[in-house]
Specification:
Number of domains: 1
Structural class: alpha/beta
Strand order of the largest sheet: 1-7-8-6-5-2-3-4
Number of helices: 7
Shape: globular
Distance between the termini: 26 Å
Largest sheet: 8 strands, mixed
CATH topology: Rossmann fold
CATH architecture: 3-Layer(aba) Sandwich
CATH superfamily: Vaccinia Virus protein VP39
Helix content: 25-40%
Length: 210
Amino acid sequence: MKIVSSRIDPIIELIKGKKVLDIGCVGLGGTDTYGGINWIHGKMVKVAKKCVGLDIQKEEVEKLREKGFDTRIQNIEEPFDLGEKFDVVVAEEVIEHLSNLGIFLDNIKKHLDVGGLFIISTPNPHGYEFFLSILLLGRTLANPRHTHWQSADTLKHLLESNGFELIHCFFVEGKSPIFMRKVIQYLFSWLPQRFARDGIYIAKKKAEDI
């Protein structure tokens, strides 16, 4: 395990030259993110051999298709089959919004090729920012649309219970342009990696499920 300053850069390195399925390709900002530095699907398309994007936001998916992106409308909590397999499946800031994790993970396995990687990024419930928000504000800063938290330990168990092997993880502490957040990050920079704000987890299908 190691700490990195961006959750996007490690993902980009892992998908270069690969056939990629991007779950949640629109991103939280919708069309406002197109071309922006934080719109990861746009970055993936530039380096991947092929990049197919899935999202439930119909209007946004259609706008992307009109711009030439290979994006498709799909609820990933329902069984589906695209009729093809991928080297890498990426779910960036997605899993914490879901309720039907078993169906979701079955869909991932169905679309991963032999030796394929499953990359997940999600907020870390042990992040010191979330602890401080409860301590100082009496409430968490978590997105109210999140249905659950996944720590490194619970996610490892979830993946291994559903036919995956967790092979690596990064903890992410992004550099903030906001002065007070910079100060807070500096003051708490001595904390262990597991107190970072986000986690990136890389898994493989177990041999018996390939």
